[in-house]
Amino acid sequence: MHTVDLEAEPNIELLNEINRNPANNLYLLFTRRNPTSSQTLVIDNAYSVTSSNFNPNVPTVVIAHGWLSKQSTSVNSVIRDAYLGKSDCNVIVLDWRRLALSDYVTAVRGVPAVGRGLGQFMAFLNRVTGAPYSSMHLVGFSLGAHLVGNAGRELGGRIARITGLDPAGPLWSSNSDSLSSNDGVYVEAIHTNGGTVGLGIGSAVANADFYPNGGKSQPGCVTNTCDHNRAWKLFAATVTYNHLVGRECTTGQISSSNCNGNSLHMGNDILTKTGSGSYYLDTDRKYPF
């Protein structure tokens, strides 16, 4: 856990640099031909893409980590391995450590610029390879959830799927740059640590919002960090098994007793997925949950 001053002055010099040069961020490609050793793709460098293992004829998944993280953080490898174990696809890990390792207030302020840069990178991939937006899925954890929302917004909501994994809460509840349902064709959020003292935003922000175990605390966890991280662990498991099913809730209070509506699978890798509403589900305490 980290003590954070939410009223601290941001690092303006770093923010200006992030805004000027989105190429500071790394785009690391993994495929079944190179499942653990990345190839670096460089925006506006067509050769970096055409000489790589990128295949425009299979789905492309982008993973964006959260605050205080980088390419080696577990969220990236766990989701990457789930996707490559499931099907032939391009997995791109966005390493935005330059901003993510700064103080929280600065990171929050810089998320929209990094998101716009990611959107521009996806447009570049589309131009160079012909990979359609309908084959693209952006997945972001915590601050990364708002980041991928901004990327989708940069592209006019044309990305097939956006998944927010416990979108960050502090400084985001009334922030116009937060993840929203208009950022992609289908936008989904998985809330695992909401509430007044949680690390996640808690409130519904997507087309479909899932609240595992009520969305505040998770079985087997005793800290907010564990609850928060459970979102990406649950998502990775659903990519492999597609086994967690929510029931739609009819009232504002998310609890098992008032959520007996339509069912919808949480997570998974289906690009044509649709759905709307808020959903409750119970999970186990250990993988695959």
TrEMBL record:
InterPro entries: Lipase (IPR013818), Lipase_N (IPR033906), TAG_lipase (IPR000734)
Annotated GO CC locations: extracellular space
Molecular function GO terms recorded: lipase activity; serine hydrolase activity
One of the GO biological process terms: lipid catabolic process
Pfam families given in the database record: Lipase (PF00151)
Superkingdom as given in the UniProt entry: Eukaryota
The protein's name: (apollo) hypothetical protein
Source organism phylogeny: Eukaryota, Metazoa, Ecdysozoa, Arthropoda, Hexapoda
Entry similarity comment: Belongs to the AB hydrolase superfamily. Lipase family.
Boundaries of every Lipase domain copy: 24-289
